[in-house]
From TrEMBL:
Function, as annotated: May play the central regulatory role in sporulation. It may be an element of the effector pathway responsible for the activation of sporulation genes in response to nutritional stress. Spo0A may act in concert with spo0H (a sigma factor) to control the expression of some genes that are critical to the sporulation process.
Chain residues forming the annotated DNA-binding region: 140-237
Sequence ranges assigned to domain OmpR/PhoB-type in this UniProt record: 140-237
Sorted UniProt keywords: DNA-binding, Phosphoprotein, Transcription, Transcription regulation, Two-component regulatory system
One MF term in the entry's GO annotations: phosphorelay response regulator activity
This protein's name: Stage 0 sporulation protein A homolog
A GO CC term attached to the entry: protein-DNA complex
UniProt KW Secreted keyword: no
Residue(s) carrying 4-aspartylphosphate: D55
PANTHER family reported in the protein's UniProt record: DNA-BINDING DUAL MASTER TRANSCRIPTIONAL REGULATOR RPAA (PTHR48111:SF21), REGULATOR OF RPOS (PTHR48111)
Residue ranges annotated for the Response regulatory domain, each copy included: 6-119
Pfam families: Response_reg, Trans_reg_C
CDD domains to which the protein is assigned, alphabetical: trans_reg_C
Length: 239
């Protein structure tokens, strides 16, 4: 029998937490509810969830701080919850490591769909370190440049013979740009290609992911991740 996936629900509104739990239980998820930030951090370690639904406005430690604390040691997916009217900086949430966000009041089907979509993306990535093969042994969908191999089939990046860890969307964005060398893409095109219709975001989402990539991958003498001012981005291969 396949073990149920576990969802940690963090919301100080007991009624909302119970409603979310009901939706997810009907979809055969196992759930645990907590109602403040400090308890969320403790229960995260004990419960070991597959995904966390995290409300922003919590007593004591808020959702941003909980996300920051969890991301120090774990890459488990986090979906942030925010009520309409609350100040919610989506970019800040993404920079702290959130995978998606849902605005309250939400449709139950949309919430479940987002949970399933984020889990799907997360499970595509090997959760154990991948031993990167040299270029001659690469298989599947990959691109190779001097000192860089991006393999989308096993979600791995080899940079100067070192494996670089990346969340799924970062790697997919990097692979997409590198597989179309010197082609310029607008932020809107990248948002559509990489996030698709299941993600309601704005173009700043792309900027955040490009910033993350640049922190991990520096420009090479033969190639670079370039900004085309006023338009978007390209993977530039220097001749």
């Amino acid at each position: 029998m396949v073990a149920k996936q576990k969802i940690l629900i963090v919301d100080d509104d007991v009624n909302i937490a119970e409603l979310i739990s009901l939706y997810l239980t009907k979809e055969c998820f196992d759930t645990l509810m907590v109602h403040d930030g400090e308890e969320a951090i403790v229960k995260f370690q004990e419960y070991q969830p597959n995904l966390m639904l995290l409300d922003l406005m919590l007593p004591g430690i808020d959702g941003y701080e909980v996300c920051r604390e969890i991301r120090k040691n774990s890459s488990v997916p986090i979906i942030m919850l925010s009520a309409k009217g609350e100040i919610f900086d989506k970019v800040l949430g993404l920079e702290l490591g959130a995978d998606d966000y849902v605005i309250k009041p939400f449709d139950s089907k949309e919430l479940v769909a987002r949970v399933k979509a984020v889990l799907r993306r997360f499970h595509q990535v090997p959760q154990q370190p991948v031993s990167q093969a040299p270029l001659s042994e690469q298989t599947g969908d990959y691109v190779a440049y001097p000192d860089l191999i991006i393999n989308q089939s096993n979600y791995s990046v080899l940079y100067y013979e070192n494996t670089i860890e990346m969340p799924p969307k970062e790697l997919e964005l990097f692979y997409f740009l590198a597989s179309h060398p010197n082609q310029v893409f607008t932020r809107e095109q990248l948002l559509d290609h990489i996030w698709g219709y299941e993600y309601i975001g704005d173009t700043r989402t792309v900027d955040v992911h490009i910033k993350r990539l640049r922190e991990k991958i520096k420009d090479h003498t033969s190639w670079s991740l370039s900004t085309v001012w006023g338009i978007g981005y390209k993977f530039e291969v220097k001749k």
